[in-house]
Known about the structure:
2 copies of one chain form a homodimer. The first copy, chain A, is α/β, with parallel strands linked by helices. The first copy, chain A, has 7 helices and 7 strands, in the order H-H-H-E-E-E-H-E-H-E-H-E-H-E. In chain A, the strands form 2 sheets. Chain A has a 5-stranded mixed sheet. Chain A has a two-stranded antiparallel ribbon with strand order 1-2. In chain A, helix 6 (148-160) links the parallel strand 5 and strand 6. In chain A, helix 4 (89-98) crosses helix 7. The longest helix of chain A is centred in the first third of the chain and has 17 residues, at 38-54. In chain A, 38% of the residues are buried. One zinc ion binds at residues 58, 60-61, 63, 69-70, 72-73 of chain A.
Amino acid sequence: MEFPSKLIENAVGELAKLPGIGRKTALRLTLHLLKAETEATSSLAEALAKMRFEITYCQTCHNISDTEECSICANKLRDHSMVCVVSDIRDVIAIENTGQYKGVYHVLGGVISPIEGIGPSDLHIDTLLTRIPESEIKEIILAISPTMEGDTTAFFLSRKLREFPDVHISTIARGIPMGGELEYADEITLGRSIVERTRQAK
Amino acid sequence: MEFPSKLIENAVGELAKLPGIGRKTALRLTLHLLKAETEATSSLAEALAKMRFEITYCQTCHNISDTEECSICANKLRDHSMVCVVSDIRDVIAIENTGQYKGVYHVLGGVISPIEGIGPSDLHIDTLLTRIPESEIKEIILAISPTMEGDTTAFFLSRKLREFPDVHISTIARGIPMGGELEYADEITLGRSIVERTRQAK
Ligand SMILES: [Zn+2]
Ligand SMILES: [Zn+2]
């Protein structure tokens, strides 16, 4: 596809770098912005840049946050003795949307993936281990997508967590189809899988 | 969907304003940018803002252009006696991609739509009419999508063009399915519809 303008070409090229956006869709979006008020484009560009450059992470759970402590960790009404371990911020949003969970979170920032060169030290596992005694945590729910990498990560964590024999370890109930991504589950299934979580044998 | 950060919420909200982008897709794009290098976001934001604020239009044909005259109008090898009238820049790109057309263009900037309050005076029709005698145009191809609004626009133009009895008026061949949008046509169909254009009876 050739464009009559380098400006258009650059905009289309940048949009088409986003996952799931092809060049035809990118052109459609570009021409939409071109027809709309200039304000629409400046708001979008500013929101993206601001998000990327000003974002911070909660020092306790590594959730995204506009402050040092995220709104979930800061909420005294939540059960701080129960920590739900997830790989990704998306999973926090998905579980929060079920309205079924009242504990707190720990965001690993990924899963162990030898292919992508992601090892345990690349994930927020150390902060989880130091957090357990400091915060008197009684239960840890491993809510990691049951993919191959997810299962590897959960297995690795289970073994690490053996140093805390008083902490109950559970995994979300297998309402989630095997090989399925957590974030695609409907809210009812995901909600149930939290409520009916299965406690792990030690 | 609730977000743990206003910055994320704004970015998702702005992306979700784009046509065909839902909130779930917007969140996916936002988290993709968050994981990627900061440079990816700044390049995207800058490309969009630059495109929107620096874009200019060809003074002859109203095609998008980085200069006063677009690369098609400036090309001496093209047949300047043949003008293809289209509603949109997308149509110029689509026809150029067929490689079948060697004339020049005139971009109306829309179609007559009483529902959306777009009348003939909102389109670049006047500049087309002044262009015909000035540029010694011999043929005008009406390449407007055969939708109801497109047909209305083509009919309006046909009548206006009666003041130039020496100019041949043709419409693109009905290879395009009725009610179909020009830009969705495959290149072969669109290319043929240009080559086999039907000359209008006066
Ligand atoms: Zn937190
Ligand atoms: Zn031009």
